[in-house]
Amino acid sequence: MIPRDYHQDPFIVIWELTRACQLKCIHCRAEAQYRRDPRELTFEEGKVLIDQIADMDSPLLVFTGGDPLMRPDVFDLARYAVEKNIRVSMTPSATPNVTKEAIQQGKEAGLSRWAFSLDGPTAEIHDHFRGTSGSFDLTLERIHWLHELDMPVQINTVISKYNIDALDQMAKLVEELGCELWSVFFLVPTGRGKENDMVSPVEHEKVMRWLYEVSKKVPFDIKTTAAQHYRRVVIQQKMRESKNMEQQIHYEMALQEGKTGRIDGLGRAPKGVNDGNGFVFISHIGDVFPSGLLPIKGGNVRDESLASIYRDSPIFKELRNPDSYKGKCGVCEFRNVCGGSRSRAYALTGDYLESEPACVYIPKAMRKEKKKA
Hints:
Blueprint: E1 12-16, H1 43-54, E2 60-64, H2 74-83, E3 88-90, H3 100-109, E4 113-117, H4 123-130, H5 135-148, E5 153-159, H6 167-176, E6 181-186, H7 201-215, E7 221-225, H8 229-241, H9 245-257, E8 274-275, E9 278-282, E10 287-289, E11 299-300, H10 306-312, H11 314-319, H12 327-331, H13 342-349, H14 364-372
Helix pairs in contact: 2-3, 7-8
Protein name: Radical SAM protein
GO molecular function: 4 iron, 4 sulfur cluster binding; catalytic activity; metal ion binding
Keywords: 4Fe-4S, Iron, Iron-sulfur, Metal-binding, S-adenosyl-L-methionine
């Protein structure tokens, strides 16, 4: 199998079908509204976009929002994409829109997985985060419905100051709910998200080390989003545990090639994905961004193809060059496999090439310089 070239084709495409949503989450990237925007890509425009995605070596496609279920044609779009041999998952909001009929429609359309957000092990924590009373109980009920209809379930959790002290209970709940994958997001202060909602850099590191230890014990898989330095943490931990020189060399090679693992059915990439580097986001009106958390537009699919924007837009090309990163990220030996969150760098410094503000690691090159001084 020929490895995917991120300079040519993304590993994952996120399409924000709509910004309409019945919830009002305190961290919402999209600052979602209750009504649909009349400028949304039409069904026919969506089909053209799906054709373009298929031509880019059929990356993973995620329907997001807002709430994708606010679009009545969501399952027709999913069916069309599946017919093009694209693997499609969806992240709907846990609202009354999630009926058993809707779940059945999704299954028949060929959705590979549903993902629900669960941001705390209790109603008090989750409902506060989601800005809607009763959201926690409704989410648990819908997860049970998905199991009844044999639909694979993913849980998304945003790490913030509101739930950092409840993560042990959260992991236990994910296990009790029988979910296949726990996708752990680290908050980026954009949209409604605020910097004071974030955990500190030291807490980022502690949570990531905790996640690595948890991943060795639980029956579900764990992946992270907006937490590129989790890859560095995992490789460091594995190198510490390894007594085998051959394995040590393997990890050193992984650093040089940007590799972190293998492709699997859960959508984890074999090498480091970052904003604009293996990752692309399309807004409800067709604007193309390196990610939904990095609001600098590379183009619009109504004006040019997704492939030309992804491959040739200056911001995308710049983001795919780790040697252009500034500060400690630019000299870090983990920059090819990690690279830090470009979105968080932009949100907190105004420069998407600056160092990851939430990383505590000091690169070897900087430590050597300090010793010389």
